[in-house]
Amino acid sequence: MIACLPPAARAGSFRIYDHSASATGQASAFTAQADDASAGYYNPAGMTQLRGVQFSAGTTLIAGGFSFQNGAGTQANGDLRGSVAVPPPSNVYMTANLKDLGIGSSDSTTIGLAVFSPFGTLTRWPDSSPFSTATTKAAFELIDIRPSIAFRPLPDLAIGLGADIYTFSGAFGEGQVERQFRWPGGLGIPAGTGMELNGRDTAAGFNASLLYTPLRNGDGRPLVNIGLIYRSQATLHLDGQLLAGGTRVADTRTTFVVPQVLTGGIALWPVRDNEREWKLELDVDYTGWKSVRNLDTTLSNGLTIATPANWTSGYTVMVGTEYKWLNPTPLPDWDVALRAGYWHSQKAIPDQTFNPAIPDGDNHAVSTGFGFMCREHGKFLGVIPCGGSDKALSPKGLGIDLAYQAILYEGRTVAGNVNPTVNGTYRTTLHVGSINLRVNF
What we know:
By secondary structure, the chain is an all-beta fold. The chain has one domain: Outer membrane protein transport protein (OMPP1/FadL/TodX) (Porin). 2% of the residues lie in helices and 53% in strands. The chain has two helices and 26 strands. The strands form three sheets. It has a 14-stranded antiparallel barrel. An eight-stranded antiparallel beta sheet has the order 5-6-9-10-13-14-17-18, with no helix packed on it. A two-stranded antiparallel sheet has the order 22-23. The longest helix has 4 residues, at 21-24.
């Protein structure tokens, strides 16, 4: 019975990289650019590049599905609990330059607040699947609330420091980690009974970042940026319940370690003048999944569900580009950007402890996107003035960013799993659409 139980929580390698449409369009190769309000996620040190008060809010629509086939030819298809994952991972950013707020005489310090979904999964498999005793539904909709501050101790060096508050909220989905499955039998519970393991907690970590600019053009704008951000571990003690047919069987506790992450990038601008900007960027991301050694669940009735994990750390390599026209003749008072990118990411979960709740595997992503920023005397959507007012709380710029990304997982054949019903071949394809609206004051 214990061997058939799934873990109470598993974020897997299903880490969310896409936290703004401007970055998604470049396959999230944005650590060294970080020149809009989403720097609050990608590299808080980059907030020192921003003036005034800047606000950005957006969402990410994820569609697609999963397929399974075992050696006997039995097939099953899964999805994201619908044609699109609901609620979609979303983000909100705000930055403020302290001098522009009337605090101090130096423009080298900026504060920010970011709210986003750093890890998550939302999966559904049919109750009739061969591995229904492992999982039928799963949700892990964690949110990160990140206040941060950035400053420049040297003209070409910026440093960012921030806290990461990981928590769950009913405003962002189930408000808990949740996994549903079918009971294999035992303990007086009829086989096939719908079961649920859930839990929630709040934990804290920290992040530190830097942005170094070794080369600028004659106008002082970067031609080369080097960015680095470290995100620390945090430990979630997920307290919840084991339910059978909706009735409580026992209280539970499972410990999940949010992994440490180190991301570095270099951005080059081969072209950067008053008419055009062309950026190329390479980022390398390391996620320390090896901290997830087990996902044992302790029950209040004295049982312990031993659940080995033994995940492995891995790298994601991201390449992105952005070409921007500044005040082009057809659209004066506008900036227009075209974006594209590619990433390759490694799997984290070994065959022995794989669970279909997280269809983890090596994957490739291709992205494209565009952005429009309206300033001065332009009109957003042809109606809303974008700027031109000297009033303190009047917008100085309005913008929209859109992106599309296809994430293609390599086919994965699982063998030797601790739950033999899980063994088989899995295929996953996801489609991601991102939108962000930006307002600069």
